[in-house]
Design goal:
Distance between the termini: 36 Å
Number of strands: 20
Strand content: over 45%
Shape: globular
Order of helices and strands: HEEEEEEEEEEEEEEEEEEEE
Number of helices: 1
Largest sheet: 4 strands, antiparallel
Radius of gyration: 18 Å
Mean pLDDT: 90
Low-confidence stretches: 9-30
């Protein structure tokens, strides 16, 4: 099933052709505005503790649970949250620096979390690291997870796709063409956030060589991707990591960024299809409190 899915995507066929799972957003997401934002992040004082926050505007966040989840073993770094069509919030996260799987947990209320079985990376060869898993949801609500893998020669983002609606079985990781180490000494790309817009897929990625967030674009989730903005193109400065992009109620987009060497959490807005961005500003109350979060835009009436 995973190979059929990969071949279908590469050929440009719709995901429905291979029976993939459906996510929480509905096909008319582009015509609706968010009603709530949920952020999951690991605490700045503990990378084994996940915090959950919420906001009505994507700017001012208040705690839902500042110590919402601690996994049975390992870390809970880089937690990414998704609201699935089954009514559960799902998080995936980095379990360890040398992990060969990603952690998973779910919750009905964003406060009480149940750990699920880790998702192993079904690859050949000796995998040295599995980092920064990030949920990807397309315009029709179909979901996947982008994860950065390394075999000791820099990070390369890969896409995992579910083999059923319960999200318990996953395909082998499929590399994103056009995004990867640029030479034998390159550290590659990590923290990949895929954002569908106007029929294309935009990849916001951290260049591990420069520590800057760059932008690539493709016609399909698997690529091939073409970089359209590199260096400090948006004026966000650096080092920056953990890009998380959400739509705004007034029609623009907002990116949240972890300025991890400065202990600051930032946001910046775009209203022209990601071409230009406002000067970065601090997210009130989160600097020095959380690290590497993901912000989920929720379009349906909030659940308890």
């Amino acid at each position: 099933m995973g190979r059929r899915f990969a071949l279908a995507l590469l050929a440009g066929l719709p995901w429905q052709a291979v029976g993939t799972a459906t996510g929480a957003p509905k096909p008319d997401v582009a015509q609706r505005m968010p009603t709530r934002y949920t952020m999951t992040a690991f605490r700045a004082d503990s990378d084994t503790t996940m915090a959950v926050y919420e906001s009505v505007d994507g700017t001012r966040f208040t705690p839902v649970a500042e110590r919402a989840y601690t996994p049975p073993t390992g870390l809970v770094r880089d937690p990414s949250v998704m609201l699935h069509s089954d009514g559960w919030y799902h998080v995936t996260y980095t379990m360890a620096a040398d992990a060969t799987a990603i952690g998973m947990a779910r919750s009905r209320n964003r406060v009480d979390w149940t750990p699920l079985a880790p998702v192993p990376m079904l690859v050949s060869g000796r995998l040295e690291g599995t980092w920064a898993p990030e949920w990807y949801t397309d315009a029709a609500g179909r979901v996947g997870i982008v994860v950065s893998l390394t075999w000791g020669h820099g990070f390369t983002p890969h896409l995992l796709v579910p083999l059923g609606p319960d999200l318990t079985a996953w395909s082998p990781p499929i590399p994103l063409r056009g995004i990867g180490p640029r030479g034998p000494d390159s550290l590659g790309f990590i923290d990949t956030e895929l954002v569908p817009l106007d029929g294309r897929v935009y990849a916001f990625v951290k260049n591990e060589d420069t520590k800057l967030v760059e932008l690539a674009v493709a016609d399909h989730p698997l690529g091939p991707y073409r970089f359209v903005a590199q260096g400090d193109w948006a004026g966000w400065g650096g080092p920056r990591e953990g890009p998380s992009v959400v739509p705004l109620p007034d029609g623009g987009h907002r990116i949240h960024l972890d300025a991890y060497t400065e202990g600051r959490y930032l946001y910046s807005d775009s209203y022209d299809g990601f071409r230009t961005w406002s000067a970065p500003a601090e997210v009130p109350g989160l600097s020095g409190v959380v690290r590497h979060g993901t912000v989920l835009a929720e379009f349906d009436p909030p659940t308890p």
